[in-house]
Every structure is written in structure tokens, then in C-alpha cells.
Design a protein that fits this description.
It comes from Neocloeon triangulifer. The protein has 163 residues and is mostly helical. The protein contains eight helices and three strands.
């Protein structure tokens, strides 16, 4: 969606401020990630379909052999919606810089850094999560943390020199 947002911003000339974006994104207090995604995915699929229909034949760059052997440097090879690595600004997660994420994402009580669950929610949904959404995801992960006994047995039975 980063490319989609960039293109639509350039085409329409509108851009929401981070504060406005957060307000709009946090209107939903649904803490069930599956429910949130069930509603969001079809909408995003339609946006991408319309974007591809309008811009599908647009050329975005040229590639030379040195670029291919150089680890894809400078090649727009894939549209990613979760993060962008800008050579000047650094990494942005769903449009937010690391310092912005540190300010916006929920933190553990008494903590100063964002919870991994908050960043995960942001990456998966594109929304800055509320504290209740991050806590619900933490609870879900804790409930799924135990490995079934047959998996533990299998792991324990692997040879010690297995790489």
C-alpha cells in the first residue's frame, strides 16, 4: 500500500497528517485481529485491483545487470505494503518512521519501547493499534505459545549435530 498511497497522494494531492491518520485508524476498537482483517482485506484488494487497472502498464524504472548482481540495489522489484527502506530517511513501517513508531505504538506498563505486538498489528493491518488491541494480541500469542508434545518429542529426537 505504500506505493498505492504515494501514487494516490501524488495524483490527488491530498495527504492526511499522522495525527489525523491515527485518529481515523483507531476508530475501531475491535481486538480480534481476524475480524479486523476479514473486513479490511476485501477493501484493500479492491483498491489494488483499481490501482493496477489504472497504472498496470506504467513503467517504473530500468534494470541493468550490475543492479541484479548487486543484490537488487535500486530495483523496484516488488510492491510491499508493510515497510519501505528509504536511503535517506531509513525504514518506515506503514509510512511511520522508527521515532514515530516509538511515540505512537502501545508500550508495556512502565516500558519505554513499543510492544512487538503493536508493531505486528501495525504491519498486518496498517492501523496503529490501541492498547486494548495490543493486549488482546499479547493474550492470543500467550495462549498459542505451548508446543504440542509430539513437536517437542520430534525436536528432542533430532541428532545433536543437525544443522
Amino acid at each position: 500500500m505504500a506505493l498505492f498511497r504515494l501514487a494516490t497522494t501524488r495524483v490527488s494531492g491530498t495527504h492526511l497528517s499522522p495525527v489525523t491518520t491515527i485518529f481515523v485508524r483507531n476508530l475501531s476498537e475491535n481486538t480480534d485481529l481476524r475480524d479486523v482483517l476479514t473486513k479490511k482485506v476485501p477493501v484493500e484488494q479492491e483498491k489494488v485491483k483499481a490501482f493496477r487497472k489504472q497504472y498496470g502498464a506504467t513503467k517504473v524504472g530500468e534494470v541493468n545487470v550490475d543492479m541484479m548482481y548487486g543484490g537488487m540495489r535500486g530495483i523496484k522489484g516488488l510492491v510491499t505494503e508493510t515497510s519501505v527502506l528509504d536511503p535517506d530517511e531509513g525504514i518506515r513501517f506503514r509510512g511511520f518512521s522508527i521515532p514515530e513508531c516509538q511515540k505512537l505504538l502501545p508500550k508495556a506498563p512502565g516500558g519505554s519501547e513499543p510492544l512487538p505486538e503493536g508493531l505486528f498489528w501495525l504491519l498486518v493491518t496498517g492501523d496503529v493499534p490501541s492498547e486494548s488491541q495490543a493486549k488482546a494480541l499479547s493474550k492470543e500469542w500467550a495462549n498459542r505459545a505451548d508446543l504440542p508434545s509430539h513437536v517437542v518429542t520430534m525436536l528432542n529426537n533430532f541428532p545433536a549435530n543437525l544443522h
